[in-house]
Every structure is written in structure tokens, then in C-alpha cells.
Amino acid sequence: MPRELTAVCLGGPRAELGETPRVDSRTGKLLWTDITGGFVHVGGVVGDSFELERTLAVEGMAGPVTPLPGEGAGWVMARESELVHLAQDGTRSVLAEPEANRPTAFNDGVADTEGNLWVGSMSRNGAAGQGRLWRFDSSGHGTVALGGIGISNGLDFTADGRSAYYVDTSARTLRHFDIDPRTGIQGSTTLVSFAPETGDPDGLVVDNDGCIWVALWDGWAVHRYSPKGELLDVVQVPAARPTAVALVGNLLVITSCSGWLDEGWEQESPDAGKLFGVNVAVSGPSARPYRGPLKISLQNDQEKKR
């Protein structure tokens, strides 16, 4: 039987769509976004509460934030259809527009163990198969690693860089990728298929034991799976829509959504949109940095259309 745990509210700003929590290894600070609000929040977890230090407004849909090497170097951020450099003071510079002129927006992504950046997109209009998963390598060249995606969501890599776990929310699956660190995806298998009553798989993180924590939108829970797909832990979350997860030491930090809740759910989850946490007795790595240049080139138009 899986272990049962219960998360508690850590506080923080109430996000309409909280997402993509990350620990910046340069500072130890937690970053997370309000996608539709257009904010990046920075702070720290002290005891059983989150202490907000500052909020950066990005004037657009706030996608995942990935650190750059070096103190004070800022972050690479996916915003709307763009990749931008986000400086420490909130200044933004557009690096590339991989999803320009398409009915899509970036949603989630991380860097792998080699410093390549992976970022996935989703349809803005609910149409199937319009999302793509991009890979920006350490030379700054961007290619589409996977197409035909509904909602590109949680992604993380194992410590050796040879495996990745990935969620396409529309397909309701957690997939395992075989990874060649130099070239990308070499094979794919479905590890877990989620029943509708479980909720929709959303963001994820791989812990230092190689197990996968998956947030379940509309599921009031986070599940932990072994690399073989066995359900190990169930974390009950007092919010209907957990969205993504990060490990801050042994604390599993969970973002959530306060928008578009079904009738009655707002009363049942008054802290929806804030951060939640639970001690899970296992740790995970900080966010890996993108190690490529800020001058980014994209594959040619013919390749992009596949």
C-alpha cells in the first residue's frame, strides 16, 4: 500500500495559476510563477512558511524560469511564445521566438544534466496536437524534440542524464524517455496512464532516489512513482488543483491554482493558489542551469512544421 501524507499551506501570494517551482542553486531561493498573472516570485522557505522577498512582473504568460551559470547572471525564461533573458532586476531581453505565429504558448521546462534547455508548449485554443517540446542545446541551437503534443507539461531528468520523465496532460500519461545527452530522445515508453477520477497529470520532479512526484490537477493530490511505475506515496493537498512540485531539502513544495474552480471548490480550498508543503524524507537536486549561449538559433522552417 502507498504511504499516505498530507500537505499544509506554506503561504505565499495567491496565484491564479501557480506553476514551475524551482530552487536556484546559486542562492538557495525558491522561484515560482503565476503563469496567467505574469509574475515570477522569489523567496525562501523558513520552517513551515514561505517568506516572499520580491516579485518580478514579466508582462505576459510567465513560463518556466531556468538559472544561468554565475552569480547575478539572471535566468532564461519562457514567456508566451518567446525565450527571454530575465535579469535580476526584472529587465527582459528577447532571445528567440520558437512558437511565433502559432496558436500556442510555452508551459513548462527544465535544463538537463548537460546544460541543454528543454521547454514545451501547449495550444491556446484547446486544439489537439499543437504543442511541441523544444530542445536548446549547449551551442544555442534549438530543435523540436517532439511534436503532436496536447499540453506539454512536467519534465525532469535522472541524475545520470540517461532518462527523463514527461507528462502530456491531454494524453493523461507519464512517459519515460531514453536520453542520449548529446542528441536527445532515443526512445519512449508509457510508464503510467491516469484514470479520469485520479486527476490530470501536471508538473513533476525526480527525487534523489530516482522516483517521480507528479502533481494531479483536479485530483487534490500529488503521487510518487517508482521508475517502474509503482505508486509509492500519495500526498493529499487541501486544494483541488495542485500544479507542480519541487524539493527544498526534504520538503516537497507544491504550487496550486485558484482560477476556474468548480462551484463549491473555493469554499473547500480557501488557500488555493498558494504554496503547500510536506516533509517527505527524500531530497532532490536544485534547478540545473542552462549552459548554452544567449544567442539562440532555430531549426529551419521546414523542420519546425513537422
TrEMBL record:
One Gene Ontology biological process: L-ascorbic acid biosynthetic process
Q: Which cofactor does it need?
A: Zn(2+)
Listed GO MF terms? calcium ion binding; gluconolactonase activity
User: What positions does the domain SMP-30/Gluconolactonase/LRE-like region occupy?
Assistant: 17-257
PANTHER family recorded for this chain?
Answer: REGUCALCIN (PTHR10907:SF47)
Q: Which organism is it from?
A: Arthrobacter psychrochitiniphilus
Q: Where does substrate bind?
A: 107
The entry assigns this protein to a family as follows: Belongs to the SMP-30/CGR1 family.
Which domain of life does the protein's organism represent?
Bacteria
For this entry, the protein name equals: SMP-30/gluconolaconase/LRE domain protein
The entry's free-text remark on the cofactor is: Binds 1 divalent metal cation per subunit.
Binding residues for a divalent metal cation: 19, 153, 202
Which InterPro entries does its entry note?
6-blade_b-propeller_TolB-like, SGL, SMP-30
**Lineage, opening ranks:** Bacteria, Bacillati, Actinomycetota, Actinomycetes, Micrococcales
Instruction: Please list the residues that make up the active site.
Output: 202 (proton donor/acceptor)
Parts forming coiled coils: none
Q: Which UniProt keywords apply?
A: Metal-binding, Zinc
